[in-house]
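Regression test attached.
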Amino acid sequence: MLVETVLNRGWHHKGFVYEGARFEGKALVISVRPRKGSRGRCRGCGRPGPTYDHEPTWRWFEHVPLWGWAVFFEYRMRRIACKQCGRVLVETVPWASGKHHTTDMYRCFLASWAKVISWQEVSRRFQACWQTVFRSVQYVVGYGLEHRDLSDVGAWGIDELAWRKGHEYVTAVYQIDPHHQRLLWVGKDRRELSLKAFFVEMEKAAEGFAGRIRVVCSDLWRAYVKVIGQVVPQAAHVIDRFHIMQHFGKALDKIRAAEVKRLRAKGQRPLLTKTRWCLLKRPENLTDRQHARLGELLRLNLRTTRAYLLKEQFQLFWHYKSAFWAGRFLDLWCRRVMRSRLKPMKDIAQMLRKHREPILNWFRLKKAFSCAIVEASNNKFKLTIRKAFGFRSFEVLSVAVLHQLGDLPEPQFTHRFW
Ligand SMILES: [Zn+2]
């Protein structure tokens, strides 16, 4: 069987013929020519037009490697005298978009691997340079963003993440409808402007986008809260469990660190070292050793212990069904904490009081909307950042996370093998 037969089976292009294959060094080169009487399509407008002349040199387009050999299509581009555009332009070919020297299918192939292994590994395995891998993922993401359907978005969750060392942040917006959850957008920083940029972009992609929003889940970050109030005033604002519990984690860390310092200053045994996880994890997730350690801790009446117990008690809050009773619990809990003399916990209580309504909204909406997806993605997001993808710029980061978490539609081919 000839290589052309294989190619024609899964990778046939109307108006073009595979003419033959040969080896050149370690590469398999397949010549392509236009079918007799066919007309090339103008790069400017996409319409077929008469051939003006041919480019002086053959172009090579890298395709999916076959059995360890690099594969190239060799083709001499026609220049089209286009009436529509009123000038001579190079034709556009169906196997590679833009000015790319990699076929669209090869780019999809590389991108599909880049979803499961690191970009560096893809580049090493297929002997493609890092740039090619990046461009491939960028192409697939670009296609996906252009073709995704945003009409079913009724609820979002907003989150902010630290990126790179120092205090650089990115804002991530997720769709959190029960029927569809995905990352919609990432933007630099966590200022009002960041979120406003999101609205502008979404409105451009899908008209009436903001008007369809019914629920927004977010952290208590002031900049976000303000913009949400301005742009989607009709939406119910929910401050969800994940974000609130994050504050508890931070408060506990503070109390514990201060206490370690205090005990050390007094020359006491460092009881609290290596206990961070015992205190932050839910009790049911602890290992046996951590469990024993926690028991030891609880017997001592430390500030840390008291804070821990308050946090555990607060977990009951999430089990309420009615917003009314949850609210009663919240008020009682806050009153108790305000008498506790634990400053970081008091800060939380004050915050909860201030945002009582958006917190109770979660119960009012029957717990249907939460940032659980945000929480899960948050970890994946961090992993994507950590997985030495060679991030140098925000652009690369944004392409990588949208590729991983955006649930984007992909270019379709008649033949798929990944
Ligand atoms: Zn044209």
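Expected vs. actual: identical. The CA atoms of residues 28 and 71 lie 5 Å apart.
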